[in-house]
Amino acid sequence: GKHLGPWFGSCLFVSFLVAYVARHTLPLETPPLKIWQITGAVAFAGYALGHLHDMIWKGQPVGKTLRGMVDATLYAVLTGLVFRLLWP
Fold this sequence. Notes:
Elements: H1 4-25, H2 32-58, H3 62-86
Helix pairs in contact: 1-2, 2-3
């Protein structure tokens, strides 16, 4: 319950950063697969890198880090797909 709001805000923030990078780097006539590739990579960085930092600096177990990175991969693929489908 109390974590759902901040998580949703975090997803919106990552999507805003993805949109910012995409808007300033990709022309409107970019092929759909390239849009998916770039936006997915930026989204992955936004969702996954915190797990690596937690493993390094906070001693988070490797298994938990890998599960978080798998989740981040799924979020990134879905974020990239949404940008690919909605690209003007």
